[in-house]
Amino acid sequence: MLQEEVYRLFESEIENWQLARNKYADLEASVSKRIEFGDFGIDVVCNPARIRSTMVEVQRKLEKMRHLPNNSQAAAAVDSSNDSCFLCSDRRPKEQKSIVVGDFEVLVNPYPIFPIHFTIVYKKHIPQQILPYFDEYLYFTRNLTNFAVFFNGANCGASAPFHLHFQAAEKRYFNVVGDYSTLPRRYFETVEQDDKLTLTSIRKYLRKAFVISTADPLRAKVVLQKYFMPYITDNMLNLICCYEDGQYRIFVFPRKKFRPWQFFEEDPQKRLSISPASVEMSGSFVTIFREHFDRLDANEIVDIYSQIS
Domain for residue 47, yes or no? Predict the structure, then answer.
């Protein structure tokens, strides 16, 4: 069973791969706080494990990004060296192992956001896209039932927008998954419903969020295209999917922009290095700077969501 295999891979990598062992140990030093908004909350995390290089290099890269187009592709160009792709098999650390599943490989993410965090990588170097590989996306969701599988559009949060990939982490860490079950019904509005599928929007939730609930993968794809095709075309869509009670639950977050104005602020006392992707849309803001963690409050969160969603 795939889920058992990925758990075994994780245990093996932590035992045998020093970089992964160190970064998951760093993750334990993360600090967090929860900001309540009535019936739901948003988590804020300061996570040192996300740092890929020294703090000086991080600051230099961030300064460059502040003067580039507001999308993931520009960010990735700065974050790469010699046009390399860290997801391509010939560029990965030799210690990194994988599980081959058809045209994809499952890898332990060595720069984690979550205590168990995987990247699901297409074998060939092709751009980030969802529709041609939506069946595979749902396959991983169906076979990793403890997990949420998430996808970041190439212009709104993908860390490698030039190489197709999904990510996966245990679904208990995604606030939106729990909120779907616990929020009062007044938060939900039915957009489309038949005997095979329900599409609902989550209202008064700070950001635009929709949920496709169905057991039928084909219907899910049809509805995704019907309502969200402009965002798919513009690579401005975040998806989080889990499989529960015999249903795919696909959380859809259409996006207006990648980063808020706070990222580009000249005054360092007002600047926030927040690059929202699926994790932030799910209800967890991640930063690597303690001062930004301390400054991020309810007003900033509301403002950031209003800009990007």
Answer: yes
Asked whether residue 49 is assigned to any structural domain, the reply reads: yes
In sequence order, which residues have a C-beta less than 8 Å from that of residue 221 and are 6 or more positions away? 131, 134, 135
pTM of the model: 0.93
Q: Which domain holds residue 280?
A: 2-174+252-308
| Number of domains forming the structure of the chain | 1
Kindly list the distances between the CA atom of residue 121 and the CA atoms of 1, 98, 153, in Å, as whole numbers in the listed order: 19, 10, 15
Q: State residue 248's pLDDT score.
A: 98
Angle ∠(178,289,309) on CA atoms, nearest 5: 45
Q: How far is CA 200 from CA 180, 195, 212, 220, 293, in A?
A: 10, 14, 7, 13, 32
Nearest C-alpha neighbor of 278 from the set 253, 258, 303, 300:
253
Count CB atoms within 10 A of the CB of residue 292.
18
Per-residue model confidence as pLDDT tens digits over 32-78: 999 999 999 999 999 876 665 444 454 566 666 556 666 766 666 55
Whether residue 246 is contained in a domain is answered as: no
Does residue 233 form part of some domain?
Answer: no
pLDDT confidence band for 82 (50 / 70 / 90): very low
SS3 content of the chain, % helix, strand, coil (to 5): 40, 25, 40
Cβ contacts of 71 within 8 Å, gap of 6 or more: 154, 155, 156, 258
| Joined tokens for residue 19 | 């970089």
